[in-house]
Amino acid sequence: xxxxxxxxxxxxxxxxxxxxxxxxxxxxxxxxxxxxxxxxxxxxxxxxxxxxxxxxxxxxxxxxxxxxxxxxxxxxxxxxxxxxxxxxxxxxxxxxxxxxxxxxxxxxxxxxxxxxxxxxxxxxxxxxxxxxxxxxxxxxxxxxxxxxxxxxxxxxxxxxxxxxxxxxxxxxxxxxxxxxxxxxxxxxxxxxxxxxxxxxxxxxxxxxxxxxxxxxxxxxxxxxxxxxxxxxxxxxxxxxxxxxxxxxxxxxxxxxxxxxxxxxxxxxxxxxxxxxxxxxxxxxxxxxxxxxxxxxxxxxxxxxx
Length: 305
Known about the structure:
- It is a single chain.
- The protein contains eight helices and 13 strands.
- The chain has helices at residues 6-10, 18-32, 41-57, 60-69, 76-94, 112-120, 225-230, 290-303, and strands spanning 126-129, 132-135, 140-147, 155-161, 164-170, 179-182, 198-205, 211-213, 216-224, 232-238, 241-247, 256-259, 276-283.
- The N and C termini lie far apart (78 Å).
């Protein structure tokens, strides 16, 4: 896990008081708040980092652990417990009758980061085998950014994690924010422990005219006044091409039409699709000619009781 300097995030130093932390947080939160920076992904990221830094440094206990263990502060208690166990075990080995004492393997200037990376592997916990504690490897987390069009069909991608190329088959219909776990593709275990897993979160950007909701798609389609009144044929876009729709006479704006099976593919169900819902939006003609205006006047007179 990459080290994040929370003091630097808030623009303060380690000697900062609780009041300094609070003032710095308020200043940075106002600067990067989403309401002040609409549709600014970089500002949104900074805002989350500022909040994370404040949650750690504004809590006395968390701040002490962070100052002592750095990026491994969340596992501080595990470190202390393992250190005590190692100390007791070493003491018993040197003096099985319990006389005197001794310093454990991790006491006196041990490197906490090396300890966590080599023993816990970010997973926290292990099991004993042959006098040694086996620890499961660290889980790796990765994001894979895709366009909505990329997940309309099953696709293959190669991603690189810790220098290793991993070829993935991405099933059609994957959702934004969905996570998949690939077992055994995380960090190496310690003392014969199992490998960690690779967790991949999909971030899907929709740059199409369609709104996706689960397996269904939604779109607005312009409908000219004449076709709405008289009826007729209308070509509309679907996700994989155009189709011709038959518009009934006297169709009102806001009318919804369902195109069965023209939605998004259902995840891991080959050949099964949701529906596409079309909503007609009436378009009033503009820049009428004198002749057109006269015809509308005559029509309005015919419609008057």
